[in-house]
TrEMBL record:
Alphabetical list of Gene3D superfamilies matching this protein: 3.30.420.40
Protein name per Swiss-Prot or TrEMBL: Gluconokinase
InterPro entries in the cross-refs: ATPase_NBD, Carb_kinase_FGGY, Carb_kinase_FGGY_CS, FGGY_C, FGGY_Carb_Kinase, FGGY_N, Gluconate_kinase
PROSITE patterns membership: FGGY_KINASES_1, FGGY_KINASES_2
EC number: 2.7.1.12
Species this protein is from: Planococcus liqunii
Start and end residues of each Carbohydrate kinase FGGY N-terminal domain: 6-250
Gene: gntK
SUPFAM superfamilies, sorted: Actin-like ATPase domain
Superkingdom of origin: Bacteria
Length: 514
C-alpha cells in the first residue's frame, strides 16, 4: 500500500495564524490556530508585532505536525496565504523600523485623499487595480514620507507580513504577484512595479521585494526553524497568494459567474476573470491569483470585527450564559437575533466602525443605528448589526454585478459560514441561494491546491471541486427577501447622504484624540 502524502496550508490572518494539514483528497488531518492582538490604541491606528506573528507561524506549524504524528518525509509542501495591505519599514540588516501597519490602519486617509485629488489617483487605480484608500500600502508610504520622514529616510525596504516571514525563514525578500497586486504599486498589464505609482510613493523598485509568481517555490528553510517546526529542511515552501484570492480557489469559485462571499474579521465579495478588469467608477479591486486567474471584487472592513465589538461591549450577560451552557458566545447572539423579524422592525445599522472600503472607499465613514425607537430592544440591535454587515456586502455585490454580470452561484466561506442563521440571512438579503462547502478552511485549502499545482501534482484547479466535500445550500425566504428589498434602498441612501457628516465627525474624533 503506497504511503500517504500530506500538504500543509498556512494562513497568516489579521487576528490569528492557522496551519491546516490536508491529505491528497482535501480531508483535514489536523489544524492549529494561534491568536495574537491587533493593537488599536485609538480609532485610526491598527498595528501588529511582526515577531509575534512569526512566532505564531512557527508554533502553529509545530503543533499541527506534532499532533498529527505524520512522518517527516510524508509532508510534501508548505503553502502560504496571507492578509493583504500590511506595510512595515525595514532598515539595515533587517532591523524593523515600524510595526506591521495593517489594512485597518487609517492614518493615511489624508494622503489617500490627496492622491485621488492631486496625483491622478483614478489613473493609478486603473493601472494597479487597488482602489486609492488608507488601506493601501501606496497611501501608507506617502503617509510615512510626510509624517515620519526620519523613518522613511532610514528604510532600505518596505515590506508586508508574508515577506517578513519568508525573509526570516530563508533570508530573502520576495513578494508574490497576488500580494503585490494589492499594494497599489503593481501594474496589472505589465506584471511589474508601476513607475507612476512608485513616483507617487517616493520609492524605487529597489526599495521593494523581488516579484515572483504565486507558484514560486523556496527550499532550504533555516535549520533552526525546520527543527523547531518538526519538518524537513528541504520541504518545498510555495510562496502562495493573498487570503482573498485563495479563498475563492478554496471554495471552488474559480469559474466565471461564481461569486465567493467571505466574512472573517473583515469581509469580501469576489469573482474570477481570465484577464485583469478594473471599474471605471473605482469601486472594486483586481488582484492576481495566476496569470490566467484574476480576482475582481470588493472588500469590507467591517465583518466579524463588528460582531466581536457587539459581544465584548454589550453582551456580557450573553457571554456568561454561553459559558454556563458550554456553547460559543456568537451562537448565543445569532440565536437571539433569530427571535426578531427580518428587518429588525425597521432598525438599520451601518457597520462602519473602522471606516469602510467597498463600496464607499471612505476611511471617515462611521457606524450608526438609524430608526431606533422606544419599542426596540437589545435583540433588535443584535439582529440589526448582523443585517447591516450583510446589507453592506450586498451593495458590493451590486457593483461586482455591473462588471461581471449576475452571479450563477454564490459560495460562502469564512467563520460566518458555520452559522446557519448568518447564511440564511445572506440568502434572504441577496435573494439568491447561498452554498456552503463542508470544508471551511478555504484559504488554507486554496494555498494547498495552488501548491500542488506549483509542484506539478495536479494539471489544473478542477480537482478542488472534489476536495471541498459535501455542500449545503440555503434558499431565500420570499417574505424576508421582500422586506429587505424595502430596507436596502434606505440603507444605501443614508450612507450617501452622510458623506459630509462622516468627514466632520471623523475630524472631530481625530482632533479630540490627540
Amino acid at each position: 500500500m503506497p504511503e500517504k502524502s500530506y500538504y500543509l496550508g498556512v494562513d497568516i490572518g489579521t487576528t490569528s495564524t492557522k496551519a491546516v494539514l490536508f491529505d491528497r483528497g482535501g480531508t483535514v488531518k489536523g489544524s492549529e490556530t494561534v491568536f495574537y492582538p491587533l493593537h488599536t490604541p485609538n480609532q485610526i491606528v491598527a498595528e501588529q508585532d511582526p515577531e509575534e506573528i512569526f512566532r505564531a507561524v512557527l508554533n502553529s506549524v509545530k503543533e499541527v505536525i506534532r499532533k498529527s504524528g505524520i512522518p517527516a518525509h510524508a509532508l510534501k509542501l508548505v503553502a502560504f496565504s496571507a492578509a493583504m495591505h500590511s506595510l512595515m519599514a525595514v532598515g539595515k540588516e533587517g532591523k524593523l523600523l515600524t510595526q506591521s501597519i495593517t489594512w485597518a490602519d487609517t492614518r493615511s486617509a489624508k494622503q489617500a485623499k490627496k492622491i485621488k485629488e492631486e496625483k491622478d489617483g483614478h489613473a493609478v487605480y486603473l493601472r494597479t487595480g487597488t482602489p486609492i484608500h488608507a488601506m493601501s500600502p501606496l497611501s501608507k508610504l506617502v503617509w510615512l514620507k510626510e509624517e515620519e520622514p526620519a523613518i522613511f529616510g532610514q528604510a532600505e525596504k518596505f515590506i508586508g507580513i508574508k515577506e517578513f516571514i519568508f525573509h526570516k525563514l530563508f533570508g530573502e525578500y520576495v513578494i508574490d504577484h497576488s500580494l503585490a497586486s494589492a499594494t497599489g504599486l503593481f501594474n496589472l498589464e505589465n506584471v511589474d512595479w508601476d513607475e507612476g505609482a512608485l513616483e507617487v510613493a517616493g520609492v524605487e523598485a529597489g526599495h521593494l521585494s523581488r516579484l515572483v509568481p504565486t507558484t514560486y517555490q523556496m527550499a532550504g528553510v533555516k535549520l533552526e526553524y525546520a527543527a523547531f517546526m518538526g519538518i524537513r529542511e528541504d520541504v518545498p515552501f510555495v510562496v502562495g497568494a493573498s487570503d482573498g484570492v485563495l479563498a475563492n480557489l478554496g471554495v471552488g469559485a474559480i469559474e466565471q459567474g461564481v461569486i465567493a462571499v467571505t466574512i472573517g474579521t473583515s469581509g469580501a465579495i469576489r469573482t474570477v476573470s481570465p484577464k485583469p478588469k478594473t471599474d471605471p467608477k473605482g469601486r472594486t479591486f483586481c488582484y492576481a491569483l495566476t496569470e490566467n486567474h484574476w480576482v475582481v471584487g470588493g472588500p469590507v472592513n467591517n465583518g466579524g470585527i463588528v460582531l466581536r465589538w457587539l459581544r465584548d461591549e454589550f453582551a456580557s450577560s450573553e457571554v456568561e450564559t454561553a459559558k454556563r451552557l458550554g456553547i460559543d458566545s456568537y451562537d448565543v447572539l445569532t440565536q437571539i437575533a433569530s427571535t426578531v423579524n427580518a428587518g429588525s422592525d425597521g432598525l438599520l445599522f451601518h457597520p462602519f466602525l473602522t471606516g469602510e472600503r467597498a463600496p464607499l472607499w471612505d476611511a471617515n465613514a462611521r457606524g450608526s443605528f438609524f430608526g431606533l425607537s422606544i419599542h426596540h430592544q437589545k435583540q433588535h440591535m443584535i439582529r440589526a448589526v448582523l443585517e447591516g454587515i450583510v446589507f453592506n456586502l450586498y451593495t458590493v455585490l451590486l457593483a461586482v454585478e455591473e462588471l461581471a454580470g449576475e452571479p450563477l452561484r454564490i459560495q460562502a466561506s469564512g467563520g460566518f459560514a458555520r452559522s446557519d442563521m448568518w447564511c440564511q440571512l445572506m440568502a434572504d438579503v441577496f435573494d439568491k441561494p447561498v452554498t456552503v462547502p463542508e470544508n471551511f478552511e478555504s484559504s488554507c485549502l486554496g494555498a494547498v491546491v495552488l501548491g500542488m499545482y506549483a509542484l506539478g501534482e495536479i494539471e489544473d484547479f478542477s480537482v478542488v471541486s472534489d476536495m471541498i466535500g459535501e455542500t449545503h445550500t440555503h434558499h431565500p425566504d420570499a417574505t424576508a427577501s421582500k422586506t429587505y428589498r424595502e430596507l436596502v434602498p434606505i440603507y444605501i441612501r443614508l450612507s450617501r447622504l452622510l458623506k459630509e457628516e462622516y468627514e466632520s465627525i471623523a475630524e472631530f474624533q481625530r482632533k479630540h484624540m490627540e
